């Protein structure tokens, strides 16, 4: 009887795995189409400089407008794109889209805008990112802003020396780097110091209720102090409540981003936001 149950469970798991594999295969197939058929779009979320009380940066976040399924969020397709290698053409599309946007906004911005672009560790390791960036820069010749690369700590898994070399080369092109989702991944303090990072983004998990959760408060204060001692700027992600903002301001955080200030919006809406400030 136990054996029969075991066998049934196997059947159950096999079926589940097949469904999962099939779902992924469909998304992969459709994602390839999405790239060629123009179903992707970048949205922009404001980042506020707390010293100047102004929007100085925008994080570019990808959106997929599926013809039948509607809007699909990146957490539902970026991991699949990474697994399948599709992140390489997809990431290339994102780079072009962001630089094209800067070119389109040329002359329309009252002050320079920095655009934060998310890059997968796979793009750093397996593509010639510096060439892609240089080509995009040459094509769009941005004058009213710059692009900053966001990478998660997990990039370090690929071997810190190799990553450092790649980042240093891109730094020569004038690129800046932020560590995304700081505090959630794998990174050694020693290499953190050696890498050419310009700042870190404290993960939303630490920011949420930092004003009332003592453990989070201790960690966030320590992160800000450590970052400043290493000459890194600090951006807090996922700020949703006034109390969180006050805590962050009091503890000398440099930039904030979150629903309290604005959700990611289309390029058109973002430009309106900038004009209103
Ligand atoms: P991320 O880079 O950490 O981006 C921040 C995410 O937090 C975004 O989700 C943003 O909409 C969300 N967020 C911002 N403020 C708040 C807040 O106050 N509350 C809450 N609950 N959420 C907030 P989104 O756009 O769904 O993106 C999810 C992740 O997908 C990103 O996390 C990033 O890892 C990845 N991603 C997005 N666009 C790209 C892209 O163009 N390329 C790559 N490689 N990854 C991307
Ligand atoms: Mg990010
Ligand atoms: Mg993040
Ligand atoms: Mg994230």
Automatic annotation (TrEMBL):
Domain EAL: 24-277
Keyword Isomerase: no
Source domain of life: Bacteria
A Gene Ontology biological process term: phosphorelay signal transduction system
Presence of keyword Transport: no
Identification of the protein by name: Cyclic di-GMP phosphodiesterase Gmr
Sample GO molecular function, one term: catalytic activity
UniProt keyword list: Phosphoprotein
Species: Mariprofundus micogutta
């Amino acid at each position: 009887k136990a054996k029969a149950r075991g066998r049934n469970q196997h059947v159950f798991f096999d079926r589940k795995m097949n469904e999962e594999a099939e779902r992924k295969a469909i998304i992969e197939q459709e994602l390839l189409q999405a790239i060629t058929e123009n179903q992707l779009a970048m949205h922009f979320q404001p980042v506020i400089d707390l010293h100047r009380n102004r929007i100085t940066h925008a994080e570019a976040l990808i959106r997929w407008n599926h013809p039948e399924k509607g809007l699909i969020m990146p957490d539902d397709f970026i991991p699949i794109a990474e697994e399948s290698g599709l992140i390489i053409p997809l990431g290339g599309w994102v780079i072009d889209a962001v630089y094209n946007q800067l070119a389109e906004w040329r002359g329309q911005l009252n002050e320079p805008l920095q655009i934060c672009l998310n890059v997968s560790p796979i793009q750093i390791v397996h593509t010639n990112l510096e060439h892609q960036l240089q080509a995009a820069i040459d094509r769009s010749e941005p004058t009213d802003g710059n692009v900053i690369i966001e990478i998660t700590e997990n990039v370090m898994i690929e071997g810190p020396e190799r990553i450092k070399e790649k980042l240093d080369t891109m730094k020569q092109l004038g690129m800046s780097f932020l560590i995304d989702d700081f505090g959630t991944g794998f990174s050694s303090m020693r290499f953190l110091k050696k890498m050419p990072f310009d700042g870190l983004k404290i993960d939303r998990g630490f920011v949420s209720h930092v004003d009332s959760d003592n453990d989070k408060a201790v960690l966030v204060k320590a992160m800000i102090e450590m970052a400043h001692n290493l000459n890194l700027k600090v951006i807090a992600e996922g700020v949703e409540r006034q109390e969180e903002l006050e805590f962050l301001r009091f503890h000398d955080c440099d930039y904030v981003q979150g629903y309290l200030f604005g959700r990611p919006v289309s390029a058109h809406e973002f430009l309106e936001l900038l004009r209103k400030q």
